[in-house]
């Protein structure tokens, strides 16, 4: 017999013990206990129904922490079950977050033979691989580029949402991607990771041709949403924009800068390698349709 509980001050010690072993299942599992302890009262209330602890007759055996985006898609930030309870424990965890919820579930995972077996048995669908790359900012020499035709513009809240929305949809358009709405941009700019001076447009002759963004998450700086409109690719503008973002990142005083790239996006990888990024991790995205 299994039961589940929401996170509370009473079960926090048990959650802390379980969380210490979270990386045994997946290196990418995030630290929910640290996040909870650092949260204010309002955030703790919001978090409460996003963290489930799984319990049998004798003890707490696992937990799951989820978040939801503006599309109501669920992302598993962390989950763990004591190994002796294996597949059955993870099956019960999944039930905690389904409960008539038809949202898609996303989970990022550094694969092992154990978690691959569990996720496959749970009917998660395996998707593309992702490479995590790292750049050391200490002593990094940024190339300066000037041109009358090139302009960098910082995104302005409550003004540039429609421009960013349209530009990102143009840059990342594909048959299997859901187009962004302005509401998604507003959602993004109100997240804790968002940096007000970190979102940059690239303009050529006054036309918006590229976008890139620096965020701060878990005290790490990362480049996200980086790209160019297709007709301006392979002309050197990607190097120009990436150099500008690296220069901007240096001002934040962090020693490292990170980004993620699809395993088969060789053109982007070539650019990142040329500017000094190196591979540090490969993981895979899993999805589950509730």
From TrEMBL:
Species whose genome carries this gene: Clostridium cellulovorans (strain ATCC 35296 / DSM 3052 / OCM 3 / 743B)
Residues that span the membrane, as ranges: none
Highest taxon of the lineage: Bacteria
Keywords from the named record: Acyltransferase, Transferase
Protein name: GCN5-related N-acetyltransferase
Domain N-acetyltransferase: 150-290
CDD domains, A to Z: NAT_SF (cd04301)
GO MF terms, alphabetically ordered: acyltransferase activity, transferring groups other than amino-acyl groups
Keyword Transferase: yes
Keyword Transferase: yes
């Amino acid at each position: 017999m299994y039961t589940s509980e929401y996170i509370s001050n009473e079960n926090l010690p048990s959650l802390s013990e379980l969380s210490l072993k979270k990386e045994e299942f997946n290196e990418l599992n995030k630290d929910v206990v640290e996040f909870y302890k650092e949260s204010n009262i309002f955030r703790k209330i919001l978090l409460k129904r996003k963290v489930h602890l799984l319990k049998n007759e004798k003890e707490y055996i696992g937990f799951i922490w989820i978040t939801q985006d503006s599309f109501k898609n669920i992302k598993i930030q962390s989950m763990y079950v004591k190994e002796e309870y294996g597949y059955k424990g993870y099956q019960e965890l999944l039930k905690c977050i389904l409960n008539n919820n038809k949202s898609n579930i996303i989970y990022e995972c550094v694969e092992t033979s154990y978690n691959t077996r569990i996720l496959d048995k749970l009917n998660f669908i395996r998707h593309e691989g992702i490479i995590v790359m790292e750049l050391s900012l200490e002593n990094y020499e940024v190339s300066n580029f000037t041109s009358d035709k090139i302009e960098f513009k910082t995104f302005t809240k409550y003004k540039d949402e429609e421009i960013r929305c349209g530009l990102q949809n143009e840059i990342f358009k594909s048959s299997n991607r859901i187009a962004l709405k302005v509401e998604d941009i507003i959602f993004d700019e109100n997240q804790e990771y968002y940096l007000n001076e970190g979102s940059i447009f690239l303009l050529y002759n006054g036309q918006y041709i590229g976008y890139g963004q620096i965020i701060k998450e878990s005290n790490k700086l990362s480049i996200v949403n980086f790209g160019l409109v297709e007709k301006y690719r392979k002309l050197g503008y990607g190097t120009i924009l990436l150099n500008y973002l690296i220069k901007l990142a240096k001002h934040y005083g962090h020693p490292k800068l990170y980004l993620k790239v699809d395993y088969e996006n060789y053109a982007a990888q070539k650019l990142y390698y040329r500017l000094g990024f190196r591979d540090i991790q490969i993981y895979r995205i899993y999805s589950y349709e509730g």
